[in-house]
Amino acid sequence: MKLKDLGEFGLIDRIARQVHKAPSVVLGIGDDAAALAPTAETLTLITSDMLLDGVHFDLNFTDAKSLGRKSLSVNLSDLAAMGATPRQFLLGIALPKDFSTELMDGFMAGVLEQAERFGVTLVGGDTCSSRSGLVVSITALGEQRPERVVKRSGASVGELVCVTGTVGDAAAGLELLRQGVREGFLVSRQLDPEPRIAVGVALADNGLATAMIDVSDGVVADLGHICELSGVGARLQLGALPFSDEYRTFCADDPYALGLSGGEDYELLFCIKPKHRDAVADLLAGFGVKFSVIGEVVKGEGIELVTPDGAPYQVVQKGFDHFQ
Ligand code: ADP
Ligand code: MG
Prior knowledge:
Blueprint: H1 3-6, H2 8-16, E1 25-27, E2 35-36, E3 43-52, H3 64-80, E4 85-95, H4 101-118, E5 121-129, E6 135-144, E7 160-164, H5 169-178, H6 185-191, H7 197-205, E8 211-214, H8 219-230, E9 233-237, H9 245-250, H10 255-261, E10 268-272, H11 277-286, E11 291-298, E12 303-306
Parallel strand pairs: 4-5, 9-12
Antiparallel strand pairs: 1-2, 3-6, 4-6, 7-10, 7-11, 8-10, 9-11
Helix pairs in contact: 3-4, 3-7, 5-6
This protein binds adenosine-5'-diphosphate and magnesium ion (MG).
The site of adenosine-5'-diphosphate (ADP) has 13 residues, from helix 2, strand 4 and strand 5.
């Protein structure tokens, strides 16, 4: 069956029927707007990300369910990077008329599976036809107490630069997909990233992260955003960058190039006071998430890269920019 057989309202009905109730949602899908009840004494954090066929994903590379999960994950990751607990989201979709309902059902199964896992509720959206492939636009809402929100601008000189998990995997996975590989650890890191929600919220709740961002454009580009907004520079020890064994095998010649510029790992990059190092290590160990200190915040601007033998290192590729 194709979407043109189901119709716009048939599709919306099909989606609405799968959504569970939540106490924070006074009015969900079905009216002109949703009505939400925020938790007392919290700010609402709101973020939006689009995913376009041919730009962000390729339906020849990914199954619909993984794409659904990733569409929500990248938005939840932005909330995690602010230390916010995700609560609700809106889903905008533009679909070709001949899009199969089977693909659509797979996509929605992925979106709603991830929503369930992270306790977020679909409260509305928009649906229209597309003349150029699938377009997904998700807007996610989260909550945090005002004094606990973690911004990009909070880093100070002398702090440690830290990262969760491993970096470079998703970029290597994309390279493998282009070469025809369709499975394995690196490919799954590209197609189905894990947003670090619990860690982001815990770092914020405990007042441990001074500045935070999720690694969507690459370590150098994303740390660059923290540095710029905080008015500081950073020195990165390349020998401390966390790489997976699979990634090391893939990038045997030079692990740094892709590790520094490859995006889409959706790990958290954050700064902490040196005295909090053990507390943060313990906290992340409690979540079973790898923790690495990869550098320090310094005076000035820009990011200095130091190889394990102390030599300076130049990045060739800067990270992803849609218009470059
Ligand atoms: P309007 O014409 O007033 O914008 P719509 O027909 O677009 O209303 O939407 C009807 C209801 O269905 C609204 O509550 C809207 O939020 C919801 N909705 C539309 N598309 C989606 C979608 N893709 N996912 C979830 N809810 C949706
Ligand atoms: Mg509408």
